[in-house]
Amino acid sequence: KFSYQQRMGFGSGNPTGKIPLGLKRKGLRIVVTGGAGFVGSHLVDRLMARGDSVIVVDNFFTGRKENVMHHFGNPNFELIRHDVVEPLLLEVDQIYHLACPASPTNVVGTLNMLGLAKRVGARFLLTSTSEVYGDPLQHPQKETYWGNVNPIGVRSCYDEGKRTAETLTMDYHRGAGVEVRIARIFNTYGPRMCIDDGRVVSNFVAQALRKEPLTVYGDGKQTRSFQYVSDLVEGLMRLMEGEHVGPFNLGNPGEFTMLELAEVVQETIDPNAKIEFRANTEDDPHKRKPDIGRAKELLGWEPKVSLRKGLPLMVSDFRQRIFGDHKEGGT
Ligand code: NAD
Ligand code: UDP
Ligand code: UDP
């Protein structure tokens, strides 16, 4: 068995194993689970552009082949249809673990990928979530906050699954010496986002394009902080290449109520879009905003794309996917 440093060719001269971004070094073999999904496919684009060999492992549960099709035929790219709940044997240097069935099987998939990292001495990055903070009693949320999650609530399967995934990740780190990284991702949007998974940004954008009313749940005064996908991918790569385990909040501190978000969507797509109020789901977090001080200081990272700049960048993609080549939705 080799350690991650040994595999990377670092001796004692570089005990941190840090590979500065942009530095010339031999291409890495990187597996991205969930790489055919929204965030994963953008990450794959960056890794491929950097000259690494990328293996995407995806069962296409929510991901789509179209998201990575432009890499087909490139010898550095490989796509494996595989459910991470089943064991997987590969030889790789880094594992970005994004695959996440929103069910307890999330835990099994994470365990398998940690087992793989342990066997081959790869560095493992878990994409956890701001949902580990539950309905937070601290605002904004710092990484040191332990969260406020209802273990038997309607949302708890996802929240507790990710919390357990974090626990397993730290146990493999402490117990088996696996090099790990943990990102806590806040609400992220951008091109290739699932159109119909019910998230608020995709709902509002699709609704405005289809000339349907924007469905605001509850009184619309609850807040979220929305991050553009390219900012997230930059943060994930800095975290993977850096020397800190984390957890790190990766999110945009710009905080919006759902009514404010609806206004930005109106400004961007259709000023005449109507708003319709609907009952909210149970245990919906009242507010959420990342404290990104730790990521700023230790990763030198902060988001660059504001909501007003980022939203138009996803609208053209949604228009294309909803209307095909027709221009039914206007310009
Ligand atoms: P996504 O659904 O687009 O991507 C997940 C991918 O994993 C999909 O391609 C899906 O087919 C694949 N997948 C699911 N179960 C699998 C399994 N058992 N085996 C193999 N592949 C499987 O979601 P995303 O928004 O790109 O999220 C990526 C990661 O980031 C997830 O772990 C998610 O929990 C985390 N995250 C995302 C956000 C966000 O706002 N997008 C926020 C917090 C955390
Ligand atoms: N595993 C895997 N690929 C590997 C090594 C392990 O999928 O290359 C899976 C393995 O099947 C097990 C899990 O990862 O279910 C945890 O592996 P580990 O070796 O840590 O635990 P053990 O098998 O000793 O219980
Ligand atoms: N929401 C909404 N209208 C929708 C979908 C969601 O008002 O059509 C609200 C939802 O109640 C929540 C917020 O938007 O308060 C964010 O929901 P999402 O599912 O996008 O993210 P999460 O709750 O996981 O942060």
TrEMBL record:
Its EC number is 4.1.1.35. Keywords: Decarboxylase, Golgi apparatus, Lyase, Membrane, NAD, Transmembrane, Transmembrane helix. Its cofactor is NAD(+). It is a single-pass type II membrane protein. One of its GO terms (cellular component) is Golgi cisterna membrane. GO terms for biological process: D-xylose metabolic process; UDP-D-xylose biosynthetic process. It comes from the Eukaryota. Residues 32-312 form the NAD(P)-binding domain. Pathway: Nucleotide-sugar biosynthesis; UDP-alpha-D-xylose biosynthesis; UDP-alpha-D-xylose from UDP-alpha-D-glucuronate: step 1/1. It is found in: Golgi apparatus, Golgi stack membrane. Belongs to the NAD(P)-dependent epimerase/dehydratase family. UDP-glucuronic acid decarboxylase subfamily. Catalyzes the NAD-dependent decarboxylation of UDP-glucuronic acid to UDP-xylose. Necessary for the biosynthesis of the core tetrasaccharide in glycosaminoglycan biosynthesis. This is UDP-glucuronate decarboxylase. The chain holds residues 89 to 419 of 429 of the full protein.
